[in-house]
Structure formats: structure tokens, C-alpha cells
Amino acid sequence: MQALAAAVALTMASLPARAATADLYGPKAADAVKGGTLTFGSLVEPPGLDPYHQAADGRIRFTVLMYQGLFYESETGEAMPLLASAYEVSPDGLVYTIKLREGVKFHTGQPMTAKDVAYSYNYLRDPKNGSPGAGDLTLISSVDAVDDGTVRITLSKPNGALPMTLGNKYGGVVPAGYFDAADAKQAFNTKSVGTGPYKLAEFKPNSHLALVKNDAYWEEGAPYLDRINILFIPNSASMIVALRNKRVDLALLTRPQDIQQVVKAPGLVMERWPSLNQKALDLGSELSPLGDPRVREAIALSIDKDEIMRASVGGYGKVIGTMVPAMQDAWGAPIDQLANQKVDIEKAKKLLAEAGHSNLNLTLTTINGYDWMDPAAVTMKQQLARAGINLNIQRVDLGVWIKNFQSKQMGFTFNDWATQPDPHLLFYRHFHKAPEGADFRNWNNAEASALLDQGLGETDQAKRKAIYVDFQKILAQSVPTVMLFSADHVSVRNENVMNYQQHPTGWFFGLARAYIKK
């Protein structure tokens, strides 16, 4: 407990308000041009804009511009005060007293107070309200408004990851009582009620999303752009054309052949950014015979990750074991200590025979709009065939995939998701058995869940790492998922778009710092 208190005290001392604000959302630009409209091209369309109940990463990428949590997940892995201005922790690590930033208003015009913050986080953490983010907040006993500018969060056990948990993936502070309205969830698609730098102007599925500057934003002088038009473009070929003819000012590309087409194009600038993203293969135990660990292990032993990465994104990525690259040094298990990381076809065949599946048929699900999945699926089909597994491939829309995900009927599927930079937030919700975790893959592993509980309650950095390394060894041996590779974020921009920095989560915080040179 004392170690946590000391660490927090050090954090507060090293985070004066001006320094923290300077780094939020990316670097400030002293000579930024104010005004104008930026057109952003996206291959992925959010299924909806509900930050509480919609789990898709494609939603989070955009809603972080409209909704804000108490803390910001910095690129260096630090939880920086966002709607919070400062905080302190009780000596036993169970009570966080958080001072709120002054002068914050909702998009509705009303000022934000501690009652709104308490209401929002109490709604988010209540499992009856159905938010996928509730599992991250299970150790919170209460969230109370002390006065208009102060919130007190009480925990049942210490949680070293709490500030990072109060970030921007799920929820965001909304006006107290917002969900009293019967149509509150649907209304997120027509009107934003957050505190972020941009407000929703219009959301037209299959067409576009338009955001306009929040003139009452709490940070003076921000954001720089008056409007951001996000065009949903159906394929990479159309995106390349849109970038070349300047219909689109900025986009992320994932396929190496597309990147090569624009890397030397006049007027376009290509940039690579580190990632907290993972491209994964998930193996839901509800789908027979994936409930048999011998079958899952055989699949892992049949997969050449490097070959799949090169087919999918060329050299624009990194093969991973059980941790995303940006967190490998701090939290990752050494790959040479992990099981099932090298191809072994003979062992795979032996395991399948022992399980009674010498000739196995499986159907792999991929998602429309995620271009890397098509070449990855074709390559994996060839690899699994060597072990006697016949792979069928089905493509579904993101909305269908999300419904399967939330109902824990994932089956055998590719996945593409990013994490906030903390191992608790990476692993707990996905892999802890229910009801504490969501256990989307129906893994139901008691030993792994016990380690995740230990990691959550431990505040010593070295001890936390040892616990999460043990967890990763079980993850690699039992194979509820195969973490394949992490792709670099590759942005392509019109040379007049300035000061855009891609956040490693893949979320578009950087649009709040971008501007257009006249």
C-alpha cells in the first residue's frame, strides 16, 4: 500500500498541469493555422457511436474525439489527468480522491460537475447496464461526489491500474440522468453529449461521419480545425484514388501494396507509427472441437506467424508472442519461454490424431473492411492444410461480428484490437472467467483467472510483471487465442496537413492537434 502511495505521490509531483496538458492528444503547434475542414478517409465504419455499450474498436477510434474520461492514456503508458486535474490515494490504496478540471462544459452547454462524473462511472460499472467496460471496474465499491469539483472512488481491493482504467475506451463523462431517456442509447448516433474537442454534426451509415469544433472546449485555443469529415470508403483501391485526387486529406493504410503506391506520390507524405494493436486468431471453446486444448495447440503449431504477417502487411509490422510490442519490455514474457511459437507439423498431426480429428474442417470468420484479413486467411488455409485441417473462409460485416463477440459465439475468427497500455486492461476482461471477466472465448481457465486476480491486486511493479509472465505462459500453452503480429500504423496525408500524430492505440486522438497549412 505504501509503495502505491509513494508512486502516486511521485506521479503527481512530476505532472504539473501545464506539462500534462501540453501532451494530451499529441504535441501542441505554436504556429497552428486555425479553421478549415479536414477530410479523413476510413475503411472501417463504426457500427454505432454509443461509447458505453458499443464494443467495436472502429467506434472507439472516433468517439475519443467526443467523449472524455478522467485520465488520458499517454503514448508512454502513463495515465495523465484529463477531466481530472490531480488526485491522491489513501495510505491503504483503497480511496482515490480526484480533483476535477475547472471550466469543463458538455456539448449541451451545461457545466460538468462531480455529480455527472459519479453518475457516469456508476452507470458504467453496473453490470445490469450491459457495458463491456463494466468488467474493468469490478473493484470499485462506490463513486461519490464530495463537492462540485471533487470525486471520491472507493475500492474493495487495491488496483494499480485504476487511473488507466478511467480512460477513454468505454464510457466518458455524460450529464447525470442521461440514460433516463428511453432512446438514450440510440441518441448517441444523432447528438453527442460529451466534453471532447469535437461534437457530432452528422452520422450517415454507409456514407460519412461529420464532427465540428466544440467552441466551448475547456482547453484554450484547441482544437485547430473547424470541421472533420470522415468518409467511409469501401476498399483500399478507392482510398488510393481518393488520396491521389485530394478528395481525402488523411488516411491510414494497412496493405503493403497500397502503401507502395503512394509512398512516392507527389503531394502525399507517408509516416509510420508504433502500435499497441494486435492482429489475432481467436479460438472460441464453444465451437466444437475447439474446446479440446489438443486441437487448439495443433492449430498454433501449424501457423507460421511471420509468413502470415508478410502476406498481410509486408514488412510494416512485428511478429508477437503474447504481448503487443510497445509493452513487451515492461510486461512481456520472453518469446523463447512460450509454448507453441514455432511451427511443428508432425506434433500438430499427432495431437489432432489423439483428439480424433485427423481430417478436420473449420470455418474461419473474417471482417469486411479489415484488408489484412483476406491475405492472412488465404495463407493460413495453406498452412493448416499441411496438418490435415481444411479451412473454409466466411466474411461478415463488423456489426455481425460484434454481435457474435458480445454473445460469446466467436467461434474461429480473426480479431483486430488495441489495448490501453496496462496488462490488466489487456488481459482481464478478455480472459478472466465469468462473471468477473467477460471470457469472450469461453476459455474458463481457473488457474489463469487466479493469476489475473493476483495481478490486479498487486501494486509492486516487479511482482506484477512476474504474475503476468506466468499468465502469458498459460495463455501460450492453452491457446484460447494466437496473437499473430502487430502492424505499424501507416498514415498517408496531404502535405498541407500538419501536426498529425497517430496514437499507438490506433484511436484518432491526433485529429484534435492537426491543422491545415494555407
Q: What's the average pLDDT? A: 91
Helix run count: 17
What is the CA-based Rg, rounded? Answer: 23 Å
- Shape designation: globular
| Strand segment tally | 21
Strand order of the largest sheet: 8-9-10-1-11-19-12
Can you walk through the features of this model?
This protein has helices spanning 2-13, 17-23, 57-63, 114-125, 162-165, 184-187, 236-244, 256-262, 293-302, 305-313, 325-331, 345-354, 373-385, 398-406, 423-431, 446-457, 461-478, and strands at 37-42, 71-73, 79-81, 84-89, 95-100, 140-147, 150-155, 198-204, 208-213, 227-232, 250-253, 268-273, 277-283, 317-319, 360-367, 389-396, 412-418, 481-487, 489-494, 497-498, 515-516. It has 518 residues and is α+β, with helices and mostly antiparallel strands. It has a 7-stranded mixed sheet, covered by helices on one side. Strands 4-5-7-6 form a 4-stranded antiparallel sheet. Helix 9 (293-302) runs antiparallel to helix 12, helix 10 (305-313) packs antiparallel against helix 13 and helix 15 packs antiparallel against helix 16. The longest helix has 18 residues, at 461-478. 51% of the residues are buried.
